[in-house]
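Continuing the series of single-chain predictions for the mutant panel. This is the parent chain; the variants come on the following pages.
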Amino acid sequence: MNGKSVAAGLWAGFLSGCVLGLFLLGVQLLTGIRVYTLLINIDFLPFLLPVFSSKWSQFLLHLLVSCVIGITALFLGCRLALGAFRVAFLLSLFAAFLYFPLTKLSVMPPPAGNDSLAILFWFSGHMLYAVVLGRMIQE
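Parent structure:
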């Protein structure tokens, strides 16, 4: 993996993370279901709160994690016979299933762990993330 592919992974992760964030923010603004808040919430990691205290900084943290996922997807896509798009899908599916532990860990009121509409929006957003990420890192 060279510097060019790291940059490609960073860009893919950044753009995919923006798409996911904007999608979930739109859902939250239109429906009141707190899926965007859940995405950027770090209140269960109190040691991070002094550094990431604003919504913007929490979104930037989300983008940082997304950039790491982008590099990881590109790296694994090149190394595994699965291909980049499948790796992006599997990583996104894993991230989507974090809905359940995140709703349990959250201090602020998250969507309910069994709120089917919130789960639908959350999983839809993460599948959109997978499509954008996969398309960007395909060879």
